Amino acid sequence: xxxxxxxxxxxxxxxxxxxxxxxxxxxxxxxxxxxxxxxxxxxxxxxxxxxxxxxxxxxxxxxxxxxxxxxxxxxxxxxxxxxxxxxxxxxxxxxxxxxxxxxxxxxxxxxxxxxxxxxxxxxxxxxxxxxxxxxxxxxxxxxxxxxxxxxxxxxxxxxxxxxxxxxxxxxxxxxxxxxxxxxxxxxxxxxxxxxxxxxxxxxxxxxxxxxxxxxxxxxxxxxxxxxxxxxxxxxxxxxxxxxxxxxxxxxxxxxxxxxxxxxxxxxxxxxxxxxxxxxxxxxxxxxxxxxxxxxxxxxxxxxxxxxxxxxxxxxxxxxxxxxxxxxxxxxxxxxxxxxxxxxxxxxxx
Length: 349
Hints:
By secondary structure, the protein is mainly alpha-helical. The chain has 3 domains: 45-122, Endolytic murein transglycosylase (Dna Ligase, domain 1), CATH 3.30.1490.480; 124-202, no CATH class; 214-347, no CATH class. Helix content is 49%, strand content 7%. The longest helix is centred in the first third of the chain and has 43 residues, at 2-44.
């Protein structure tokens, strides 16, 4: 009897083990399925961002360090394994780039990693305004938050040497335009882009210049363009203003342009141009000297550059401000004096 009971107990014990094994497998499968479902929800669920935020990833940051930044910023408290699994699946674990990344509301973990792998960083914009002087440009660059400052203690001449143009006067050498920069860029890099852009623009307009201009070089065109830029803010008047100055140069007349005199006064100019200023000789006083000023007096834009080499036809030799931003043009001195009386003298106190 004892022998006949042993096999039955063995079969009963084996069945229990098999059931337990199956239950364990089912539990593992169910747990795995739930884990898989939870991971999938994580991948495309919006991060915890209520307002637009920025993730600033430093150069050389490891994946673990980036994950800590995300957690400390409060964007997500998901386990590191979830982030690692997603990065591995996307094939970006070793390709995340440093930089500033925008994290607007609705951003998902998948989208954030995609941006970081693509280097889709925040792009800042710096605008050089037409008519600025180089001093104003330097001041604006120094105040650009986030831009790496390397030039604050350098002189103008040292900056030009850094740009490979050590013999050049800096005034007028940078094209007014909007330039994009990203975190880590320096003020010198922005200046270099503007310097290269002006060189290309000047080469382009000089090659397309009108025949028989009384200008001997692209640099003279740059000087004239800077004067035109400072004389008027109206785009449609720039070719007319340029025409007046070019005809004066051709006839050997003095340019008699106030902005050049003001530039020559430098920091001593208090906003009020007096008769004695017009009579005091300086290299930039176009009332006492014929020809162009020795250097540009501002940063001319592309429209002023084009006007300087493609002036409007006509016979005007004078112009006077009307007081509304536009100018009255005259071909002779008598007509000019009448325009001055009409637009200027009647406004005098």
